[in-house]
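Team,

Forwarding the record for the chain on the shared tracking sheet. I've put the sequence and predicted structure together so nobody has to dig through attachments.
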Amino acid sequence: MRRLIPDEKRPYQCTETMRPETKITDLNEFRHRKKPSRETGGGRTGGPGPGIMLGRGITDADMRKLENHFQNPQTEKEHRDRALYLILSRTALRAREIVSLRLSDAVTLPDGKTAFPVRRKGGRIVPAIPGDTALAALREYHATLDFSPEEFFLTLPNRARKGMRRPLDVRSLERIVERWGKELNIHTGRDRRNTQTGERTCKLHPHAFRHTALQRLFSLVGAEAARKVGGHTSTRTLERFYTATYFDASDHLDWRT
């Protein structure tokens, strides 16, 4: 067993190159330091400036722009994008739930609808109903392939690997949706801009479609329907995040009539 030598007797010498420069900070000054705010872009030069929350998701005008963009698909890529858009906008699923969908998991509900069980947060299994339009687009996409895949979506053929494909993952899904935003100049509802260039910094992402679908259901149908589609355990989450941050009072504050 090795014998430990006390510190005062240990033959250890520290040279100047081994002694790092240390900065002593006052504890009170450290505790009361000013944290970077989101309005100032987190203290970063050229970061996003102050923004206005116009809603969680995509505007109705941009959704109509996406609908028209995917009307007449010709290639495999266009068919996949159309089916992917319809699944994203009709199911309000998260990105990891989208890429986990399998055709063999399909079940028929008592009303004749086709549903796919999805494992939500917390491990609960909730059926997702894409609808007839989305499933028809999915079948058209699979018809462009030379085989019948088990997964909903696949990557395009990889030329470097003799045309091999693989199931679509979350990162690939994010790249596809981000490409849509760049091609059509679509951003999310938060109007945050770069302080130097003035460009909008909120890129289009898959979760924006979930916000858009739940926001629309919450406004048109009610909190209970949005809760079931979103897989939430309580309507409090919906009331907190999807209640509009603005209200047009001009129709009610008119004293001419």
